[in-house]
Structures are given as C-alpha cells and as structure tokens.
Amino acid sequence: MNIRIKAIFTILLLSSSLWIVGCFRNPATKKLQYFESGNQYLQQGKYPEASIQFQNAIQIDKNFAAAHYQLAQCFLQQGLWGNAYRELAISTELEPSDTQAQLDLANLLFGSRQFQDARARAESVLRGEPTQVAAQILLANSDAELGDMPAAIQEAQRAIQMNPGKPITYLALGLLQEKDQQLVAAEQSLRKAIWLDPKFMPSHLEMASFCQRQNRPSEAETAYLAALQLAPDNTIPRAALASFYLSWGKKEQAEKILQQAKEVNPNDPNWYRMLGDFYLAIHEQEKALSEFASLQREHQGDLNVKKLYIELLIQNKQFDLAINQADAVLASHSNDPEALTLKGQALNLLQKPAEAISLLEPAVRSNPDAPVAHYQLGLSYARTGNLQGAEREWRTTVRLRPSMLEAHKQLATLALQKNDMDLLDQSASACLTFAPAAPQGYLMRGTLRIKRGDLAAAEADLRTVLRMDPKNALAYSRLGDIRAFQKRSAEAEKLYEQALESDPHAAESLQELTNLLVSQNQTEKAVRRVQTQLSKVPDSANYHFLLGQLLMAGHHASDAEAEAEKAVALDNSHSGALLLLARARQDEGHLDEAAVTFNRLMQENPKNPEPCVAYGLLEERRGNWRRAEELYRRALDLQATQPAAANNLSYLLLEHGGDANYAFSLAQIARRGMPESPSTADTLAWAYYKKGIYDSAISLFQEATKNVPQNPTYHYHLALAYQKSNQTILAKASFQRALDLDPNSPQAAEIRQAMIDLSANP
Q1: Burial 170-179 (b: 16+ CB within 10 A, else e)
Q2: For position 690, what pLDDT does the model report?
Q3: CB within 8 A of 473, min separation 6: which ones?
C-alpha cells in the first residue's frame, strides 16, 4: 500500500468517532466510504468493482484527486489505457505536486510512444524533485527512443550519481548500453547491479535476458532460475523462465513450470491462469480452450475466466456454446457489459444482427468507453442497413482505441460506399501510423489515390502491399482497376484472375471482372466465369447473388430467382440476395410472393430505405398507389435525400393531385441525387409542366427521350409540353411516336384525340 493510502486510512481511523454522528448524511464521509471500499476491491484484484466505488466517490466530489488516481490504477490493471490516461491527467491537474501520479502519467505516455511528452513530464518532476531517480531513468529512456543515445547514457549515469547504491540505476544504464551496442560495458553494469544487491530479483532477470539475447542459453537459464528462487511467489520470473524454455525448444519444461504455478497459489487468478495464458500466447487454441474450460469449472466465481472462455469459444466458432455460457454469466450479472458484448458478437457471427443490437446497445450505455462493444454495435447496425449508426459507432471505436485496425477497415469500406474520400484518408493515415509494417494502410491509401486519379502513386502503394503480402487479392484487384481505367483490358482481366487465384472467395474481384466483361459486351462470358468460380466455391452466397444479378440483367428472371434462393439459403440475412429474389419474383409476375419477400427485407433492415423503394414500385405495379406513397415516404423518413424515393413520390403526387410544390422539391432532390437518370429528368420536367414552365419541361423531356427513345411515356409527356407551347408539328410527331411505341397504352385514346385536335387547329 502506498504512503498516500496509508495516510488516508490513518485519517479514517482517527476520525471514527465523527462517523457515529453523521455517516449516513455527510457527503464527505460517504465519499471516504466509497474510497475505502474501492481500495479494498483494488487490493483483492476486483478492478471493475473497485472502479465503480471510486467513480461513486468522484460523483460526490469531482475534485477528489486520490479517487481519480486510484481509478486510473484500476484502468491500468485492465489495460484500458485511454481511460487511465484521462484519470491520471485529471489527478495531476488537481494535484500537480503528486510525483507518483506525474510519473505514472509519464510512463503511460512513454508506453504509447509519445516519447517527447513523456520526456517533458519527467523533466517537470525533476524540476520539483531534482533527485527523483525514477524520473531521471524515464528521461534517459525517452532520450534513447528519440534517437539521442549519448544523452540517454549520460542521463542514466546521472541517475547513478543520484543514488549510487541503487541497483535499478545500473540496470537502466546496462540496457541502454546494450542498445548502443556497448555489450561489454552493458554486462558490467548488469553485474554491478547484482553485486550491489544479490537478492534484488530484477537484476538477475535482466542478466538472464541479456545472456539469452547474446545466445548464451546455459548462463541465461542459471540467471532465470536464480530470479525464480529469489521470488518464488512472483509470477514474472516464472513466466520469463517459461518463455525462455519455449524459445530454447523445451516446450514441455515451459508447460511444466507453468503447471506448477497452480500448485504454488491455487486461488490467485494471476497464478492459476498462467498456463492458459501461455497457450494463448503461443496460439495453441485447442489447449487454451481446454485449459480455460477446466478453469471456469474450478473457479466458478471468476468472471474474467468465464468471459475469456466465452471469447475462446467464439474464436473457435462454437457460437451456440458461447451464447449459452454468456447467458449463464448474465443470469447472475444481467448488466455485465462484457458478457453482453460477447453474446452480441456471437449473434453477429451467426448473422443475427437485430438480436445483437438488443444486447450491444445496453452494453455501450453501461460502459461507453468500451471500444469492442462500439465496434460490434457498428457491425450490427451496418448489417441492418443503419449505415449512419454504424459510422458513428466505428468513429467512437477509433477514438477510444486509435490502433484498432478492424474499425479503420470498416470505416474505409463505408467511405468507399459513400464516396467520402476524407474519411478514407483518415482511415489510411491511422493504419499507416499504428501499423506501418502491415499492408492495410497501404491498401487503403492506394485505393484513395486511385479515386483521386494519382494512379502512379496508387500503383506504388499496391506493389508495396504485394511485397508484404504476395497473396493479397484486393491488391491485385485494385491494380486491375487501374488497368481497366487505363483501357488496358487484357492486363486488367489477368490481374482480376490473379486475385481470384490468390483467394477463391474474393467476391469483389469477381465482381470487377464481370463488370469488365459486361462493359465489353461479353455478358455470356461473364456468366460462364461466375459459374466456373461457383464450381470451385459452391457455398458462396455472394457468387450465387452475382450470378443472379447477371441473369436478371439478361432478362432471365426465373434463373435469377433460382440463384437468389440459393444465396439466401446459404446466408439468410443477405439483403442483396433477398432484394434480388423479390425483384425476380416481381418480374415473373409472382407479386404476392415478391411482396412477402419485400416485407421480410424491411423487417430485417429497418434502417435501410432501399427495400421500401423497391416495394413501393411493386405496389405501383399492383395499382395500389396509396400504399406505394406510404412506402416512399417511409424511405424518405429514413434518408431524406434518397433519390429514387423522392423521384417516385414526386411523380405519384403530380399524377394524383398531391402538393405540387412539395412534389417539385422532391423532383429537384431526385435530380441532384441521380443527375444522369432519364427517370428523374422526366419527373422534374413533369413538375415544370404542372407549374406551366414549358420551356424547362421541354428541355428535360428531350433529354429523357434521347436517352431512352423506346419509352412511350416520355414521348407522350414531351408532346403535351410541345402542345402547350404551341409547337404543333413537334407535338404531333411526339404523339405519333408515343402511339407507335404502345398503341394500347392507357393514354392511346387521349393521344388520338389530341392529334385530331391539332390537325383541326394547326
């Protein structure tokens, strides 16, 4: 227990008589009660419980520096570095003279590689306490990381001068000397540390590590055993010895020494978890799973072990068992945010995002600083069509844990969907900062550079990815995109094929390959290529969906329906396949079945406007325009600028006597969202026509008929606009064209009468 806590306990004991008078009403007393309770939990290693008590104390007195400091210690023990940093920053602001808090904050900055800031903190401590050895050593280590080895060694020697009898200073100097390749001097410093205090375990441990690095295994083993003998009740030398044995190829000895840990202290989780943690560290999943299965049975009260066991079950794809275990935890701890998150993660992997949301939302409310919960909630939102919510959660994730590459990858994917190059740039920069040796950042930046037209720089990034990961399918695919843009189709096709050879499941690469073939009017070849890939990967929902799309585009609705059904059978939450299935049924005239599928899509994707729009088109076809109007309005409630919904609702309002001004504004929204669409040109022109602005209407109708010359409705509308502007000859020609295209249209009789009237009144 540190001096500060001892002092507080002394105050509590001396003032015990005052507690009898007003302990139930005095906030200051209640604050100290929470603080004492938190310290008791902290000593027992119950960090979440301790955190709650310290937070309770802070709620009473937000300026309670000691509580902020102890809360930081809880967060440090749980690896919640961001939270710990926040609490230490508050603590040091409230108590600038608290040297230990300042040093803890400086060490945290050092651990997060903010060496300049760590150095500044160390200097600040030394200005107040010029003989503070820990600050001096931190200053030396910061100088070393900043690349100034002469200054670092000089700072370490100054630490020795401050306290020449302290072995830790010689250890610091020895490690810096080794880093500077002064190996003889380094060994001398380490031996001096041992000579100063032969019973100081860290000296033997550092000597062991030094000998191991110098490939002197026999000496290293002797030093490790000496460290363990000096501190048999400390897990650090035992873990270090096990790691040494493993690196030396003596895995059985490593396992044996960690198995003994459970006998040394069978009731301490730091001891009985050592073997399981070892299996995790060396990626022996089966042994780790077996060990933690045993531990969670033997230590029923250890929630951390139970939750780690659930996590291992998820990693081993035993999702149903993971959910059962999570339910067992939640039965007695219903609001445990980690258990809620783990169950939500398992449900996400079982393609049940809606169920996952019901768990993950309360998990993030209960623990808003948990990045994994926010990340999983983002996945759930994305899979139910709530992209705005997904982006919010993933942005929160990377704010809480900037190094979480998976969240940056999801944001990058979302950025591409939204064409948000700033977001893609942020994700690429973050990945390059936190994982410069990983390919993800270069892949993102290469994609960004393609979008911005800097193809040479993009190719350089993608080649870097392939040097790091020669089988990266996306890198080949992006290079294929560059060649396709350069009109070098044969090379593009070859690169897409390389992507599929590297990863037969690379759906995006197959999609780009088929897009290339279709653009060259080789649709049949594209169909055959997808069928070939399906023969290699028959259980790919994405490939069945892609084949269905190609068949649908070729007007083979029945075959498209069959492929969509296969995709849905493989992945019942595949919204694209469900939408294709509904549209195929609609095209075949199976309108009731299509309506059922559209309803299912809307229920499973309540935040996605696209199924509402597609269902609205079906209801229009069925003649139920009021229901269609409801569906388009629902889509616009979900996304106010959804262009297809705005376009279709505008047209319905214009056709059925709705608010013309609102219809006109919707038509403008649709046109902005789909500026190349003949349909939005026709709708906006129809809105101009209804307002009597015929010149603007004619210009847009002409655009629509030019782009889709076989659409009789567009010619009919153009004829009406010509008629209103007294352009008789053009009006008659457009009426005749509309009649030729569809002599049995609902407007046929009206068109014939208009042509008679125009002939009678030229």
Answers
A1: bbbbbbbbbe
A2: 92
A3: 499, 500, 502, 503, 506, 509
Looking at residue 762, its pLDDT comes to 62
The CATH number linked to 690 is 1.25.40.10
Residue 705's identity, in one-letter code, is T
- DSSP secondary structure letter of residue 609: S
**117 burial class (0-12, 13-18, 19+ CB within 10 angstroms)?**
middle
- Please give the structure tokens belonging to residue 592: 């009731």
Domain count of the chain? 1
Which pTM value belongs to this model? 0.64
Q: Match 């820990």 to its residue by tokens.
A: 134
Amino acid at 357: I
Strands (E), 373-511: none
Give me the chain's average pLDDT, please.
Answer: 89
Q: Would residue 45 be called left, alpha or beta, if left means φ above 0 and alpha means ψ between -120 and 50 degrees?
A: left
Residue 4: the pLDDT is 32
Instruction: Kindly report, residue by residue over 484-497, the tens digit of the pLDDT.
Output: 999 999 999 999 99
CA dihedral 709, 711, 714, 716 (to 10 degrees): 110
Distance CA 237, CA 492 (A): 56
Distance CA 226, CA 345 (A): 45
Query: How many C-beta neighbours within 10 Å does residue 695 have?
Result: 9
317: left (phi over 0), alpha (psi -120 to 50) or beta: left
For every residue of 582-602, which 3-state class applies, written as one string? HHHHHHCCCHHHHHHHHHHHH
**Residue by residue, what is the 3-state secondary structure of 534-550?**
HHHCCCCHHHHHHHHHH
Q: What is the model's pLDDT at position 1?
A: 37
Give the domain range for residue 694. 683-762
Query: What's the confidence (pLDDT) of residue 759?
Result: 80
List of residues 6+ apart from 134 with CB closer than 8 A: 103
The verdict on residue 354 lying in a domain is no
Low-confidence ranges of the chain (pLDDT < 50): 1-25
Describe the crossing of helices 405-418 and 387-400 by its angle, rounded to 10 degrees: 150
Q: Which long-range contacts (CB under 8 A, 24 or more apart) does 279-283 make?
A: 282/246
Q: First-to-last CA distance in the chain? A: 104
Residue 26's pLDDT is: 66
Q: How far is CA 68 from CA 8, 32, 135, 738, in A?
A: 14, 13, 21, 78
Q: What is the pLDDT of residues 566-603, one digit of tens each?
A: 998 998 878 888 889 988 998 888 999 989 988 888 88
Quote the radius of gyration of the chain (alpha carbons, Å): 35
Q: Is 632 domain-assigned?
A: no
Is 525 a domain residue? no
Dihedral Cα 138, 142, 145, 146, nearest 10 deg: -170
Residue 735, judged by CB atoms within 10 A of its CB (0-12, 13-18, 19+), counts as buried
pLDDT for position 10: 30
Q: Is residue 398 part of a domain?
A: no
Which residue, 308, 363, 311, 364, is CA-closest to 340?
A: 363
